Amino acid sequence: MRIAVPKEIKNHEYRVALTPTGARELAGRGHQLAVQAGAGEGAGFSDADYQSAGAQIEADVETLWHNAQLILKVKEPQPEEVARLKPEHTLFTYLHLAAEASLTQGLIESGATCIAYETITDNRGGLPLLAPMSTVAGRMAVQAGAHSLEKAQGGAGILLPGVPGVAPAKVTVIGGGVVGENAARMALGLGAEVTILDKSLPRLEVLDDRYQGRIKTVYSTADALDHAARESDMIIGAVLIPGAAAPKLITREMLGIMKPGSVLVDVAIDQGGCFETSRPTTHAEPTYIVDGVVHYCVANMPGAVARTSTQGLTNATLPFVLALADKGWQQALHDDPHFLPGLNVHAGQVTYQAVANAFDLESVDPASVVN
Ligand SMILES: NC(=O)c1ccc[n+]([C@@H]2O[C@H](COP(=O)([O-])OP(=O)(O)OC[C@H]3O[C@@H](n4cnc5c(N)ncnc54)[C@H](O)[C@@H]3O)[C@@H](O)[C@H]2O)c1
Description:
Bound molecules: nicotinamide-adenine-dinucleotide
Largest sheet: 8 strands, mixed
Order of helices and strands: EHEHEHEHEHEHEHEHEHEHEEEHHEEHH
Strand content: 15-25%
């Protein structure tokens, strides 16, 4: 299979879809791999690293796309990339189409086969290609929040673990899924007093069992949120209602009962945010202050740690990439019922129901195009 790895062109995106380790796996199976010059630079991988793993380096982006059968990316294709897509291409990347009408239309018109990382499932009901980035964001949330608690950042001047004789900071995590558990673990490791709020009792049971009371679990109600707002030095928003905008759990009015200099980290900002006063920020200017409360709302947190994120992402994507390369997309998706829901668009038709619903389009059963 002729495989291409373009350099990501979305603003401030430093990840790359394949590491030299992945390149070696593909080359070792006899696939022809072309990596765009400089594609790995942002994640700390040089062209020479890819060459010694068996890849060709291609300087001309048009040639790279033109020659490829399978294109591996990280972020959704940007307009100039959509324009390069042809019916003979298979694209494997994050797509998040339900929020992007013009991208969906562009992919339909391209005629290409477009497989999304984020809709691939696993046998535990999870989303295995989303989880690594949620893990990164959850772990970063505490790092970012701890920094924001410093006086120079507008914070209350609190050190998370305290010191002997001074109590640690109180950290509340709303939503105890992948982001939330990882945030809570980090906060616990740094010595904070940690509480997780969730709407799912089974999830709270798992967390209670796993952390044996070292993390408090509280069922999420208006009362519990009120209490969290009054008591916490840091609140991390990590809720997700699949396919829907995040609910606004801390209102502007509630900022009035929070301690001055406390910190809100809204990881759910990519789904609209779960605090009323959240608005997306970037790594260049990650925080702002409303009513004395510091807000950190970076929509693309993993981008700041591109090397770790690239390695975490590609560990998860590689088995699927190998299946696509070895078998071709039709056979690979046919053989794996968890890979099949990854198919979002094929030959001008939407093959993922939620995307079709979002734009009032017809959808085709993905199983019908792989049999
Ligand atoms: N900003 C970033 O860079 C970044 C990176 C990765 C993920 N995210 C986002 O982080 C959010 C969480 O992702 P995840 O992978 O942890 O999801 P998840 O599905 O693993 O966990 C979400 C949790 O929220 C809980 N929940 C839902 N509604 C709730 C409510 N009203 N109150 C309390 N808990 C509630 C659910 O029961 C679930 O346990 C998502 O919006 C995701 O897109 C953002």
